[in-house]
Design brief:
Distance between the termini: 81 Å
Number of domains: 2
Radius of gyration: 42 Å
Oligomer: single chain
Structural class: alpha+beta
Order of helices and strands: HHHHEEHHEEEHHEEEEHEHHEE
Strand order of the largest sheet: 2-1-5-4-3
Largest sheet: 5 strands, antiparallel
Helix content: 40-55%
């Protein structure tokens, strides 16, 4: 029966009863004198016993050398456990009795006092010491926070994709690797950013694209980008290719085949 009471108390979520303010009110109603306190315990069924200490750690209630009451034995039999709990209770700590699951111990460090309470009459669990449930709540909070951040991140990613500059549909556009070239706009799109290209840039890239995977000779590129009006020993193509690679941001996109020409991946 005691185990059933304890389980029922642990499962009942009654914040109004289990809050610290209830225990605070209960302590505030305790009389100051020993005689009045005994009467108060007798008239309050949920309070099974009370134990108080002075600043030196001596028990001042129940008073020594007086007629023992049943409530006195409840606290004195658990004196060591209650004292240890009281010393670490701070502003308030509530636990279930290890020997009697139907009883709750609520203690305060200042004033130095512990109450032995009837768990069934209170109908609640000792929330301040419910470390397992508190850990579960923290884990659940972090889980929801992680899910929320993931959703925000995914939404931001797709929003960024929608705002990325894209090359308008153009039958003349073509791609080399990850670079999209739009001859009509004289631009290319690299990593979502639109970059301007010159006429010779586009002519060189188009010619290389037409012969993807093949080695294109320098003479062929001169013919495509400069026409026939170029000096046979000119370094114009090599210099222009250096500048074009910088625009594309990828020095390996256009491969140099030494002694033969240039090539782009097929």
């Amino acid at each position: 029966m005691k185990q059933v009471v304890a389980i029922s108390a642990m499962l009942m979520l009654a914040p109004a009863i289990g809050s610290a303010s209830v225990f605070q009110d209960m302590l505030a109603r305790l009389p100051d004198t020993n005689q009045e306190l005994r009467l108060h315990i007798a008239k309050t069924p949920e309070i099974l016993g009370v134990i108080k200490w002075d600043t030196a750690g001596e028990v001042i209630f129940p008073p020594a050398n007086t007629l023992a009451f049943h409530s006195d034995s409840l606290v004195l039999d658990n004196r060591d456990e209650l004292r240890a709990l009281q010393q670490q209770a701070g502003s308030g700590k509530t636990v279930t009795s290890a020997l009697s699951p139907d009883r709750l111990f609520h203690c305060r460090s200042t004033p130095a006092i512990c109450l032995v309470l009837d768990a069934e009459l209170l109908g609640t669990q000792p929330e301040p010491d419910n470390t397992g449930f508190a850990y579960f709540q923290r884990a659940l909070t972090w889980f929801y926070l992680t899910i929320t951040l993931a959703i925000v991140g995914i939404a931001a990613f797709f929003l960024l994709l929608r705002r990325r500059p894209t090359t308008p549909s153009d039958p003349e556009s073509f791609a080399i690797g990850a670079v999209q070239i739009n001859p009509r706009r004289s631009t290319c799109v690299i990593d979502g950013q639109e970059q301007p290209l010159g006429a010779r840039d586009i002519a060189i890239l188009r010619h290389l694209h037409t012969h993807q995977g093949e080695v294109v000779s320098k003479d062929s590129l001169y013919d495509a980008a400069w026409g026939r009006d170029y000096m046979p020993n000119s370094r114009a193509l090599d210099q222009h290719m250096l500048a074009l690679r910088r625009k594309l941001g990828d020095t390996e996109l256009i491969e140099t085949v030494y002694g033969q020409g240039y090539r782009v991946p097929g």
